[in-house]
Write the structure tokens for this entry.
Amino acid sequence: MRIHRVEIEGFGPFRSRQTIDLDAYAADGIFLISGRTGAGKSSILDAICFALYGSAPRYEDGEKRLRSDHADPEDPTEVALEFTTSGRTWRIERSPEFQRPKKRGDGLTPQKAEARMFERVDGEWIGRAARPVDVATLVDEVIGLTQQQFLQVILLAQGRFARFLLAKNDERQALLRTLFGTKRFEEYEKALDERRKEAVAQVESRSHALTAQLGEAERVAEGLVDPVDGEPPLEERIERIGRAALRARHLAESVDAAERETAQALAAAESLHTERASQREKQQRRDAARATLATLEERADEISGLRAERDAALRAEPVRGAKDAATRALAAVNAAAARLDSAAAAWDDAERPEIDDDPTALDAFVAEAQQRIGAWRPLGDIEARLDADAAALEALRADADATAVRAAELEERAKALPQEQKRVQDALDAATGLAATAESLRAAVAQLEAQLAAARSIPALAEVQRQAFEALQQAKRRKDEAEARLADLQRRRFAGMAGELAAELVDGEACAVCGSTEHPAPATRGDDAVSVDDIEVADAARVAATAAYEAANTALAAADRAHADAQKDAGGRAAEELEAELATKREELTAAEAAATEKDALAADRAALEAEAREHSARSEALVAERTQLEARIVAAIETLERNRGAVAEARGAADSVGARIRSEERLVALAAAYAAAQREAARAETAAAEAAELLQAAVDEAGFAAPADALAALRDAAAREALDARVREHETALASTKATLMDLELEVLPDEPVDTAASAEAVATAKAAWSDAVKAHTEAAQRARTLEDAVERVAILHAQIADLAAEAARIRRLADTVAGRAHNSKRMKLETFVLAAELEEIVAAANIRLGEMSGERYRLQHTDALAARGAASGLGLEVMDRYTGRARPPHSLSGGETFLASLALALGLAEVVTSRAGGIRLDTLFIDEGFGSLDAETLDTAMATLDELRQGGRTVGIISHVEAMKEQIPAQLRVEQTPQGWSRVVQDIAVGAA
């Protein structure tokens, strides 16, 4: 993987866009990244890591302040990275989430994180991913390294060299697990331990179940086997339950025979009792039949009389209809005679013409009268409308007068219309001119309001500016004091280093620096010795003071910008002047807006007047035509009214009205028609009465009665006839049934004395009680036997399952203990540690190649799996073999320079192994951010020689350092300079030979 170009904007200390061309250092192969403390050297490495993975190593655990504090709210924050891997060139553009000004309104709004990834194809960048999640997936596919692996093999950040060398077993394991992805072995360990717990739990659960089932079975088996003292072994308890089950089955078979015997005795007793009860019941039925027959025979004469009455009623029934018909015919004759008398009297009393009273003459009179009525009826309708027609004529005359008035008014309006049109047009022209100024007035009001708000904010912003300047001065003073304090402590620390090392010497033991066991003149430690903790505390104070200074500087810049913007927005005018002008403009705007509203109303009035002028001529012609039509309708209405009045007078005659004459004529027609109908109805009724009398006598003769009165006396209604018939048939049926029953029972030859059933019933009760007791005893014995047999079977199955589960649990426990480093694992080494130990041995082998060169073959790293103290985890230990003493030393015993060389060798070896595990990625760009200041001149030359070897094969190595000697040895440099405003910029110095 070769990195070509890095672009940084609004990120860390870099406000404006900085472009770093790493290809410019390819010819030299090694370049130095230099600059003052806090200038932003490590921020370049942070930017590279952020572009690839979306985070930076220095912000993994704290606040992710990636956006530059020097950036204005509207400034962008972006990092771009161009690199080549596996023959394909890529570009990533990434921005973190930050607060930006709202596009509408005041305040800030979150700007979401963005990421895009492009591939260079035929000289053009082609988009491959446009979301952070898609970019992350593509980076993993293209590079093949996780962020931790990338930091370990390509970007070696501050503090990561010695961390791996001096780490404890568990710390080193955590780092190796991240790099080599061996967490799955820990998952295997957890899974096996869970299986062990589950297997043990299953054995315990099944054992508890077996104990419970044995206890229940022993409770059921009480009394079947002899009791024992104490609690016998499990096998004996199972054997005793088996014997109890056999004994229970034998007892169940014994009580089964007793149940069958009692059942047979019960059946015999019930059969005898049934037979005796049947005889007793037949005796009772025989005696009852004899008594019933005697009673029926005593009623024979009564039933004969009822039978004769029933038969006479049936014969007389046909006479009933003839008698009813004769009665109705006689009533009809009387009613017709009464109607005839009434009709004759009404006809005689009426004012009528002289005509005959026979029906034919009356019919002729009715026909002639109806013809006269038909001729008069239309004239009656006309008579009813005469007053309405006269009123309609007067309405026509009134409409004609109104039309004349409207024509005069229309003429007057036509004369006044031009003057009204001129008045409206003048008012419209004035409102239009005033309304046209509304828009410019609105803009003027808005501008004045903005200027007034800015002018009112200037005093408060000036106070904020003053306070921000004072805060910056105080922060600058504290920062300078912290830097001076740290520099003084570092100077004193380096001055007393020899005394500190000498204080650790022990007679007879090798010196950590020279290896000698004799110490003739050890250096002394001064009273003002400085510890590492003192340095760390001072450095932390410096970092905090620097951050506070940067924050104060940012706050002052923001206050300056806000104050200048307010003065610019106010236009240099006072608030009082702006308030007066704003009030005037608002009044003018109100008048203009009112004129705009009035303009619309006046335009509508003008349009209405123009439409009225266009319609005047048409309305005048319409009124003339309407008046002419009304005068013609008046003449026609007068003629029609006079003609109708003459016809109505002729039809009325001497009556009050045509309608009265029609009603009088209709009354005579009704009387004549009723008189003729009554005469005809009376004749028909007399004929029907004579015929009905003849039919009644014929029915009496046919029924066999001497006279109609005899037949009528024998009549009975339907209910009476049915009651007579029912009583006769009921007697006949009961008599026949009783005789038949008595005959059947007499054939049984039953004894006359009653049969006794009490003794047989008592025998049945006794037999049933004995049978119930036998059934209960058999049921209990059989249930007990089945319960014990089932228990024996379940116990045997569960006992076998427990044995299998216990064997399986033992196997799983042995395997889980071995994998987890427990029990018989003498090294207390877990499976994951065993795998990582193999990787560590390969890393140590690769590191020793360079460590031997840098230490003159004195030191070699070696892996140790020795047990740690107090039972701590082991297996990933490191120690340093000193060729001078022939003894292994802990890494902590190395001096500062030796620690750096060993750490560098180990880091490079680790990088080679991780690279090979990631598919053999070629590392064409390497960054090292570590303190070379702890090396003396000779050791520094050795380290530089090793780094010089790294650039072989076209590799480019970037080194971050403050060491002046390295600036002299490495001509190709990338300087990070701090501007007077506080933000940083990048300056590239290319070696002359490379250029």
